[in-house]
C-alpha cells in the first residue's frame, strides 16, 4: 500500500491509500475516489512533494522503508482501535445510516460499517462525507 496526496477541483487536499499508482489511476478514472470534504470525484494527484526524512542516504532509506511499513501497520491498527472505541458500529446498515445522519433523520455521531464501492460512490455523489480505511487485522505481527 502506498499513500498519495490527492487534490479535488475545489483544491481540497487529502490522502488516499492505494496498492500502486495504476490502482489509483483506475479508481480515479471510474470515479471511485471522492473528496472527503466536498464529494468531488474529479481527483488528481497533488503536486505536493512527499515528505522525506533527514537521513537521506540509500542505506538509511532502506531501513526507514522497513520501519515505515511497520509504523504504517501500527498506525492503521491504532486507527482501527480508535474507530472501534469511538465510532458506532452500524455494520451493513452503514449506507442507510450515513444517509440518515446526513439528512438529519438520525442523531449525528461518528459511525463505521460496511459499504460496497457502489454504495460509497452513491453517497459521495449525494454529498454525504464518507471515507474508506484500509482495515488491518489487529495484532498479527
Ligand atoms: Zn473537495
SSE arrangement:
Elements lengths: L1 E6 L5 E6 L2 H9 L14 E2 L12 H29 L1 E4 L2 H9 L8 E3 L3 H10 L15
Parallel strand pairs: 4-5
Antiparallel strand pairs: 1-2, 1-3
The structure holds zinc ion.
Q: How confident is the prediction overall: mean pLDDT? A: 83
Main sheet overview: 3 strands, antiparallel
Backbone structural class? alpha+beta
Listed once per kind, the bound small molecules are: zinc ion
The total strand number stands at 5
Helix-strand pattern? EEHEHEHEH
Radius of gyration: 17 Å
Shape field: globular
- Lateral strand order in the biggest sheet: 2-1-3
Query: What percentage of residues falls in helices of 4 or more residues?
Result: 40-55%
Total helical segments: 4
Poorly predicted parts:
none
User: What percent of residues are in strands?
Assistant: 5-15%
Termini separation comes to: 17 Å
Summed up, the domain count is 2
Can you describe this structure in just a few lines?
The chain is an alpha+beta fold and 141 residues long.
Describe this entry's structure for a reader:
The chain is an alpha+beta fold. The protein folds into two domains: 1-47; 56-141, no CATH class. The protein has four helices and five strands. Strands 2-1-3 form a three-stranded antiparallel sheet, with helices on one face. A two-stranded parallel ribbon has the order 4-5. It starts with a strand and ends in a 15-residue tail after the last helix. The relative contact order is 0.15.
